[in-house]
Design a protein that fits this description.
Oligomer: single chain
Number of strands: 9
Strand order of the largest sheet: 4-5-8-9
Number of helices: 21
CATH class of one domain: Alpha Beta
CATH architecture of one domain: Alpha-Beta Barrel
Radius of gyration: 23 Å
Largest sheet: 4 strands, parallel
Amino acid sequence: MKKFIHEDFLLKTDYAKMLYHDYAKNQPIIDYHCHLPANELAEDKSFENITKLWIEGDHYKWRAMRALGIAEQFITGKATDEEKFQKWAETVPYTLRNPLYHWTHLELSRYFGIDELLTSENAGKIYEQCNLELNKPSFSSRSLVSRMNVKVVCTTDDPLDELSHHIKLSESDYPVQVLPTFRPDGLIDIEKVDFTDYLSALSKMTGISITNFESLGEAIQKRVDYFHENGCRLSDHGLPHAYGFTYTEKEVNQILSKRLGEKSISPQEIRQYKSAILHLLGQLYAEKNWVMQLHLGPIRDTNKAILTKIGINAGVDSIGDYAHAEHLASFLNGLNNSGSLPKTILYNSNPSDNEVFATMAGNFTGEAIKSKVQFGAAWWFLDQKDGIKDQLDVTSNMGLLSCSVGMLTDSRSFLSFPRHEYYRRVLCNMFGNDIKAGLLPNDMKWIGKIVEDITYNNAKEFFQFPSFVENLALKK
């Protein structure tokens, strides 16, 4: 009987098989956005058992288990790790047509060589088999990344982070470049209770007394400089929507002064401040030739009971239905008018916004940069087979898919890198179907080159990571 995860998984035509095996499969991985903990890479952490590695912290799995009616004690509660794995194994057969079904079996196959379908009946055996493998050096955190042919990993880091773990990794002989990403939520969320405490910490770290917007900008500049010196080439913003509201310098200083004085500010003032700080950040990114990532649209932490019990990232977020076009256009246009629009990737959580984001990206191309503003890969609830295909189709119809920087994991799991394989198989299957249907010429060499560009070369060129720039300089 043919294995479920076989060499031609998802590949329906001979053209697709050739494109995947000859052009996509062996391309290195640039994972330019993830949430892997840098400290666990710096320590080269080993994992006690498969539950610690695979289920703990994975809110995708948690949502599926809750949907099946699994008690919370077996998800995030006090049940033993073996009991939690057993409950996940019981859940897997019910995830048919959910991407978790594919991801689960891809990960078991690629990391552990297990090609059985996970069920409640074989859960104990697979639990023990995985745990035996985890005792080997090849299953430490660093090894799990490097064995997937990963060249670059970009973590997600607060501006106040000392980046000691990244520095340790850069000074080691680890062949994977692990770089920080600037994630300034604490600078943007002026309405949060701890905002003034955050600015106090920033002031202490930088030695700059933050009394107005100008001094705040100076402090942020110091942290951007520090991140850049330590390899950072991207920022990331997780926002409900873009902020392109009008403001004056005087208004922003008054808003910040009120907030520093612990006075209340209005919703309009919150929007004005966020518009101003995001514009400032965009300017700083452009100066450094960074890429700005905008992840827009989710509603987070909707289940307050679970939020109170477990905390954030508990699997109680969903797609939002915000209106994006007007203020996203205003935000990008403001930076563009000032000559300081950085390279940008736009990600939407709502599939109904696909065309909006794709066409918005096309408004700001130019400056001799391939697709300077990009419609980013299918994200979060959309990074499944249909969502990936939809994003590829819309990018093709509204722009140039050939210029795309491809996929990312956006994951906290060291076992998530087969998502790049999943994306590549969907991509090659799409091209293969078009060749078979006569919609594309049977020019495997050229289409193979486009596949190589989308899966690796475009990202390498777009992000200009230090190792690639240094290698290019050495060749010259």
